[in-house]
Structures are given as C-alpha cells and as structure tokens.
Specification:
The complex is a heterotrimer of chains A (236), B (310) and C (387). Chain A has 236 residues and is of the alpha/beta class. Chain A has a single domain, classed as HUPs (Rossmann fold). Helices cover 30% and strands 32% of the residues of chain A. In chain A, helix 2 crosses helix 5 and helix 3 packs across helix 4. The longest helix of chain A has 15 residues. Chain A is globular, with a radius of gyration of 21 Å. With 310 residues, chain B is an alpha/beta fold. Chain B folds into 2 domains: 171 residues, Rossmann fold; 118 residues, TPP-binding domain (Rossmann fold), CATH 3.40.50.1220. In chain B, the strands form 4 sheets. Chain B has a 7-stranded parallel beta sheet, with helices on both faces. In chain B, strands 15-14-16-17-18 form a 5-stranded parallel beta sheet. In chain C, the strands form 3 sheets. In chain C, strands 1-4-5-8 form a 4-stranded mixed beta sheet, with helices on one face. In chain C, strands 2-3-7-6 form a 4-stranded antiparallel beta sheet, with no helix packed on it. In chain C, helix 8 runs parallel beside helix 10 and helix 9 packs antiparallel against helix 10. Classes of the chains: A alpha/beta (236), B alpha/beta (310), C alpha+beta (387). At the A-B interface, helix 3, helix 4, strand 7, strand 8 and strand 9 of A face helix 2, helix 3, strand 7, strand 9 and strand 10 of B.
Chain lengths: 236, 310, 387
C-alpha cells in the first residue's frame, strides 16, 4: 500500500518572542502521522511545503524509513488553504492509497490543511483519528469526540486522515537511517500559484495586562491564600 | 453577500452548547443571521432573538458525516449568500469547514477568538505566544471556525425566526464515512462536569505517588479530581476525568490547576468562575487565563492546603 | 571553515535530544544516581534499544557505522541529562568497540563487535594500579606470564568502572621485563571478568555513582591467546589513539555538563524572585550566567576541533589533551557557579546542579590528571619533559 504523509517544520519562540530566532523542529503530530504511515504502508512518500529548513522535516521522515520525499519550496508562512492548494497536485500525481496528516501543527494550530487537501484532491476524509486499521481496501478508524465519546468509522480507500498524538509512539531515526536518508530521492518543486485563503494584517504580542494576580510568599502562605479564595467562592 | 450563516452542531439528537456560542458571536456582527441545522435535533432552540431564519436539513444518515455536512453547508451558502459562515472549531468542525472553504475558494480562518465586521478576526499564532489579526480581501464569503468558549452562549429559544425545512439536501451518494458505532466512556467515579470545586492535575505531577498524594489533598478540601490529557495518557486517571477539547467541559466555581501549562486544548474545557493556577514555569500560558497564580512547587503548596479545611 | 555541525550530525543530535528528553530525562537520571550501588541495567538496555552501543561499530558488524564526531554528539547529549551515568554507554564504546575496532584481529572483530553492538557485552577498563595512575608504567605490577595456549595474569587494578557487571576488562599488564624502555613489553588483554581468579570489590565515590568503580584482584587468571588485543609487548603504541578518543569523549561529556548547568541556571534565574524581581535581573547573576556560556562555547570548539582531527586520521594528541583540560576545568567551574546561582536549591539533592558538581570533579583528575596533561602539552610545545 502506498501512503503519502504531509509534514512540516514548526517554530517555537523563546521568551524573546522573536520570529527570526525561532527554533524549528518537525511538528510532533506529523511525526505521529509519519509513524502511522510507516506502519501501514509498503511505500511511504513524505511531502512538505516550506523554505530551506523544511528540508530537515523531510530528512527526518526519510531517516525514520520513508522511501521518497517531495519538497515544495516556499519561504514564509502560508495559510491552510494556500498550503493545501500546493500539496494537492502532488497528491494527485502520486495517487496514494492513503494520505496521513497531523491533526494540527504545534505553531499555527489551524487543524485545517489536511481536510482542505482532501477536498481539493477529491479524497474522502476524517479528521483527528486516534487509530487506523486497513483491510480489504477500507480503513476502520477511531475518533474521540468531546466528552470522551469514541466513534468507530469505516472509509473506503483511497482516503485522507488527520491523526491525533495518541495514535502511536513515533520511532526514533537511527544514525543508519539518517545516513541513508541523504541518498533517498528528494524532489524539489518551486511553489507556483499561491492563492491564500486569508491575509495576516498584523502579528502582535498579546496584552499582558490581564493576567493572573500572582500570589507570592512561601508555599504555606500561598496555600493559605488559595484556601481563603476557595472558601469565599465555594459555598458550604 | 451579507449576513451570517451559523452552522449549528448536534450530537445524538442533542444540540451542543457551542451552537449557542456561535449565535452569541453572530449577534455581534451586522446583517441577517441565519442558522443551518443538519440532522435531527430541536431546531426551535436555535430560534433565539436576532435570528432571521433557522433552516433544517434532513440528512440521509443518522450520525454526523463530514461530506454530507460539507455539501449541506455549500448548498446553504449558495442559497443564502452570507458574508460570514460560523462553524464550531470542534472535532466535527475539523472535518468539514476547511473543505467547504477550499472547494468554494472562500476566505478561511480557524480557531478564531474574536470576530469583527469585515470580517476581520483574531486568532493565536506561534502556539498562542503571539496573536494575529486576519482579513480576507477579495472574498465575498469567509468561513470561520470559532473556538469553543470564546463567546458566551446565549439562552435557547425566545426568538421570532422562521423555522423552515430547507428545500435542498445533500445527496447520500456523497457520503463516504460509515458510522460503525459508539463506545461509551466508562463513568468511573464522580461526574466532574457537576463539581463546584475542581482540583485539576497536569503534566507537572511527576509520578503516581504524587498523584495519589494529591488525590488525598482533594478529598481533604472537598474537591473533585480532574486531569489534563497527559495524565490520562499516563494512566493515572480515567478519560472521564479529562478536561479539555476532547474531554469534558467543567463549570466549577473554582478551578485549581496544579502543574497544568494551560494548553489551548485543555482550557477549551474550562468555564470556571475563578481559576487558580500553580506552576513552576512563570511563562506557562495558564497564567494568562487564570485569575490567580503562583509560581511554586505544586506539591509544597498542596500539602499546606488541608489544614485550612478542617 | 564551517563551524556548524553537518546536516547529518544535526539530525542525529536532534534525535538524541528527543530520545534523552523522553527516555532518560534529568529526574530519571537523578533517581538512578541515588542508588549508589545498583548498576542501572535498565539504562544499559535503553541504550541497546536505541542502537547506541553499536554507534561506532561498522555496519558490517551490525553497528551504526558512526564516526568520532557522532560519538562526540552522543556523549554530549547523554551527559547533559545523565552526567556520570553516561559512562554506562561510554565505557563500552571506547574500551569495547573502539579498541576492538581499531586493533582487533578479524576473528576478534567478528566474534565481539556484533555482540557489543547488540548490547550483549559490557566492558570495563583495567589500567590504573594502586601504586600509580599517572605513572602507570612505573607503577605497573600486574604481570602476564606466557603459558600454553594463553597467559596467566596476576596483579591488582583499581578504579575499574563497571568491572562488577562487565563481561570483559580491557587490561594492561607487563609481559616482558627485559626491555630497554619502560613502554615496551606491555600488552593489552581482553580479560574475562567472570574468569576464575578474578576478585572484584566495589569502591565508594563522591560522584559517578551507580556505575560502580571497583578494585580488581587477579590471581593467575587465564586469558587465551585469542583474547590478546594486538601484538603482545606492543600495547603502548596502540593505547595512544584509544586514549586520545577517551580524552575527547570526556571533553564531550564536560560539554554536556556545561549544557545542563547553563540550562538549569537560566531556568532558575528567570523564576526565582528576590527583592521583588526575578534574580535574573541582577548584574552579578547575569555575570555568572555569561561566564558559564563563555566557558561552554570555548569547550565545545576545542572538543570538536580534536574530534575533527581524529576523524580525519590526523595527529590529535595535543588537541585532545587540550580539549580535555579546558572542558573539564570549565565544567567544574560552571557547576560551582551553578550552585552559587541556585543557592540552597543548588545544594539540594533534589536538583541536578549538585550531581553535575560531583560528577564533573572526576574529570580534572581522570582519565589523566590535568596537571599531567599540561606536562604533556608543554612537551608538545617543545619544552623539555618535566616528569
């Protein structure tokens, strides 16, 4: 079975809140998606949209065991629809049995790219699944909805699923895997036809004014104040 | 294009509270408010003051099916031509909202926390360390998924809208997801959603021994124990005690969060009167959401609590 | 001159960091270290699972085929959390895979390397004797006598870390007294730690706890010819490259200590408050933190330089010794500053700073004392031998 997995690098800001100094790493949800792909697929293709450092996301997934990768190059952030539009032609070209995406990215937390991609690539979809089993050309998936209610579903392949973090434990890439990754096919395509679904007008530091009233002092003093607050608000 | 189309959400025949939050959001925007309800649920409840029309769409399937849902929304957009479509940023919403926007080439933003006419929206950026303002130039219609809890829910009913069965319906042939069944969460112990005082424990709780100690503290102060996802995943507590987007929503008078960082998915389940947070990380996002906070070791603070409740 | 790690090394470093933060985080290390006399077999097994024992074993023998730089990256990343417990991996890495890999016969490599890579064999080192560490050749009383099919070894070795759980001890013994120079006539043996005549007692130490450093008494212990490493009598020439590798590995460990100290200190000073502010706002504290950062960056550059030379097969004795001296002195200074910064919490057994402080101290006196290393460096700079 051929599985395509979409991955991206996500940015973590430190206390300086400077985007230029962000630390980039493979999105943890995408690592889960890659693991699921490697467990289910005989052939795994990893695809990303991003700038130069997005290459590392692909190399990591190749090092985990994927067979091939495609890097659609584009610098700067993109909204989910624009990204999905760039991914869709590759998905259609590859015609996989299964497409897996992380449920969201840790930095943008859109939770939308995978489902938008499914729509554009003409694939049936379900978001946020926590288990996937494939048999006889269909996937049986489990999703957990609000309240802890668990739903079992079946979807015929080809299909796209976005996966939750509790679906599996992603494997670590070994040194051997990392070395092999460098010689696996990595196709680079320049992004064309960027059509955003939104325009970011401004990104600002959220107002800190309304934060918690901080309680100071020893643990005992803090506990005493907490007890007072609780007793004043909770009757009986 | 004008006005707002609210896509209501129901599960197993019951409307979910987010539907009423979306109605609250719609009320802040200009233009007529229309509501779309797919499937079987009490449509009259959605008839709140300010709503012009409630459209009910029969679904060929008993349970939520993302492709049928998307199709119904597309048909409603074609019919009603709204400027803004509001859907919940919920597990269901994740499966169809972006698809609608992609297929119709509309404006799109998810997990928005504030909306103005335009539309212009506010959402988090870089794991909510920053905040972004988005606009949608050139888009006649924009689909937005709204974060649960970002808006106050309005009370059901009391409006003077027309409640009409739609003359369009999604075709069954579009359905691709077959519902096999539900698995009920086991109810183990108290119902955290009914508690007045919740002691919520998070990743800062290092081990099972500490967890047991904190359970003792909860009992001593008459609090109900709840947890964030990491502790459920670690097996310390059953999923029925999980607070958050994929867990339960609690509405206690006081929510005492120990060792919880305040991830958005967790806070989505907290509608407390007062939130008190204890965490060793002064940069933990929970300190933005809490009313009171302390940068301290949760064990040390917890140990000192019971004596005040004897 | 590119001072960046290669893409491959960067990826590897990231993976190790993820592994360490998940599998062997600092509180796990702290807990293990508390049990001073319990060898952490579970930690050994984790290394096996991750393929770390086989890191520098060539792929043809079932290893990961990593080079010296990979070894340095792993050493540093492990030590940042594990401190002295990193030796649970490190000892076998250089006493086992490096020495057998460099000097083993084909038979020895085929017999031993795959089992090392699989985590099946644990190695210890037997060099230092009660009468001498620095002057090991002068103090060397352990003797190997040729017998039919092998050798009989008698003597006493001290500070053999992990000997009590080892399968093999890489042992240095004099096999020929009739030599012109002291460094001739010494041999290296792969001594079976469970053989008859081997008596092991554990020693108690300030730091490096739980790895179990031992005194090893050897009474007529038989070692077959097949377990002699390299040519009998010529061990001294083999030791040097191994020792260089050990020195830079220690340098890399010290970089890990420096990383851990800096990290913990930064986190602490941002949250600890005094006189109404976070203490990270005070100039003295900022000065200390800056000092640690300066030391860390210097140590890192020295270690990578030495490792690069060894990787390229170039002479690196001077650079390896320099890296070890610099990194260890800085690690000890940094950990000490760290305790000052953390105050009471730095003294507490519930934080890691005291562990870094105790563990780092060894590396000023071992694997060679910094004083002796300085003597060797002076000699390399052209000055007459001073010892």
């Amino acid at each position: 079975m051929k599985v395509l997995v979409t991955v991206k690098q996500v940015a973590t800001l430190d206390d300086r809140l400077d985007v230029e100094r962000a630390e980039w790493d493979l999105n943890s949800w995408d690592a889960h998606a890659a693991e699921a792909a490697l467990e289910l697929g005989d052939e795994v293709v990893a695809v990303t949209v991003g700038g130069e450092q997005a290459r590392e996301a692909l190399l990591t997934v190749l090092a985990m065991g994927a067979d091939r990768a495609v890097h659609i190059t584009h610098d700067g952030p993109l909204d989910p629809l624009a990204t999905a539009r760039l991914l869709a032609p590759v998905v259609q070209r590859e015609a996989p049995d299964l497409v897996l995406c992380g449920a969201h990215s840790a930095d943008a937390l859109n939770g939308a790219t995978g489902v938008a991609l499914a729509a554009l690539a003409g694939l049936p979809r379900m978001a946020a699944v926590k288990a996937i089993e494939v048999a006889d050309g269909a996937a049986t998936v489990v999703r957990e909805v609000e309240g802890g209610l668990v739903e079992r579903l079946r979807v015929k392949l080809p299909a796209l699923f976005t996966v939750q973090a509790n679906i599996n434990e992603p494997r670590y890439a070994t040194l051997r895997g990392i070395r092999k990754a460098a010689s696996k096919p990595l196709e680079v395509i320049a992004a064309e036809d960027i059509r955003p679904g939104a325009h970011v007008v401004a990104t600002t530091v959220p107002p800190k004014g309304e934060g918690a009233e901080m309680l100071t002092g020893s643990a005992g003093e803090v506990a005493a104040r907490i007890a007072t607050i609780i007793k004043s608000k909770v009757a009986g | 294009m004008s006005g707002v189309l609210v896509v209501a959400e129901a599960r197993r025949g019951e409307l979910r509270e987010v539907s009423f939050e979306l109605l609250g959001a719609a009320a802040t925007l200009s233009g007529p408010v229309r509501v779309l309800l797919v499937g079987d649920a009490p449509a009259d409840a959605l008839n709140v003051p300010g709503v012009e029309e409630v459209l009910t769409v029969a679904s060929p399937r008993e349970h939520f099916e993302p492709h049928l849902q998307a199709e119904a929304v597309k048909q409603a957009i074609a019919r009603l031509q709204p400027a803004v479509v509001l859907a919940p940023h919920s597990l269901d919403g994740l499966s169809y909202a972006a698809a609608v926007a992609a297929e119709l080439d509309l404006g799109f933003a998810s997990d928005v926390i504030a909306i103005e006419d335009g539309p212009a929206v506010t959402r988090g950026a870089y794991a909510h360390r920053l905040v972004a303002r988005l606009e949608f130039p050139g888009k006649a219609t924009t689909v937005l998924t709204v974060r649960p809890g970002a808006y106050e829910a309005v009370a059901p009913g009391g409006g003077s809208a027309r409640v009409t069965p739609a003359d369009f319906a999604p075709d069954e042939s579009l359905a691709a997801v077959e519902h096999l069944g539900y698995v009920e969460p086991e109810i183990a112990g108290e119902d955290i959603t009914a508690a007045n005082l919740v002691l919520a424990l998070g990743r800062g709780v290092p081990d099972a021994d500490t967890f047991a100690e904190l359970e003792g503290v909860a009992e001593a102060i008459n609090a109900t124990v709840a947890a964030s996802r990491p502790l459920v995943d670690a097996g310390f507590v059953s999923a029925t005690r999980q607070v958050g987007q994929s867990g339960r929503t609690v509405k206690p008078k006081v929510y005492l969060a120990l060792g919880i960082s305040g991830a958005v998915q967790h806070l989505a389940g907290v509608r407390a009167g007062t939130v008190i947070a204890v965490n060793t990380d002064p940069a933990a996002p929970i300190f933005q959401a809490a009313d009171y906070g302390a940068v301290a070791d949760l064990r040390e603070v917890a140990r000192e609590l019971p004596q005040h409740f004897r | 001159m590119d001072f960046e790690l290669s893409e491959e090394l960067r990826l590897f470093q990231r993976q190790v960091r993820k592994w360490v933060d998940k599998e062997t985080p600092k509180d796990y290390a702290r807990e293990l270290e508390r049990h001073e006399h319990d060898y952490p077999f579970e930690l050994w097994d984790k290394f096996t699972e991750a393929g770390y024992h086989g890191l520098t074993v060539p792929e043809e023998y079932g290893g990961e085929g990593g080079d010296v730089l990979t070894q340095m990256v792993l050493a540093r990343e492990l030590c940042r959390s594990l401190g002295g417990l990193s030796w649970v991996w490190g000892l076998t890495s250089f006493a086992g895979s490096k020495s057998v890999g460099l000097y083993g016969t084909d038979e020895q490599k085929e017999r031993l390397l795959p089992r090392i890579a699989n985590g099946e064999l644990r190695f210890s080192i037997g060099f230092t004797e009660p009468d001498g560490g620095t002057d090991v050749l002068g103090a060397l009383k352990t003797r190997g006598e040729k017998v039919d099919g092998g050798w009989r070894i008698s003597g006493t070795k001290v500070w053999c870390s992990s000997a009590h759980v080892a399968d093999y001890i890489l042992l240095l013994a004099r096999t020929d007294d009739d030599v012109a120079k002291r460094h001739q006539g010494v041999s290296l043996f792969l001594l079976d730690a469970k053989a008859e005549g081997v008596e092991i007692t554990e020693l108690r130490k300030l730091g490096m706890r739980a790895i179990g450093s031992c005194q090893v008494n050897l009474r007529d212990v038989f070692v077959p010819d097949a377990d002699v490493l390299g040519e009998p009598g010529k061990a001294w020439y083999m030791l040097l490259p191994t020792l260089n590798n050990e020195r830079m590995m220690v340098g890399a460990f010290c970089c890990g200590i420096l990383d851990g100290v800096l990290e913990d200190a930064l986190e602490y000073v941002k949250q600890r408050r005094a006189f109404g502010r976070a203490i990270g706002e005070f100039q003295t504290i900022q000065g200390y933190i800056t000092e640690i950062a300066l030391m860390r960056d210097q140590a890192e550059l020295m270690v990578y330089r030495a490792a690069n030379l060894l990787n390229a097969g170039k002479p690196c004795h001077l650079e390896a010794s320099m890296a070890k001296v610099v990194a260890s002195e800085y690690a000890v200074k940094a950990a000490d500053l760290g305790i000052s910064i953390l105050g009471g919490m730095g003294y507490s057994a519930d934080t890691d700073m005291q562990r870094y402080w105790r563990d780092a101290r060894l590396w000023k006196i071992g694997p060679i004392t910094n004083e002796m290393a300085r003597n060797a460096i002076a000699e390399q700079l052209g000055l007459p031998r001073s010892f």
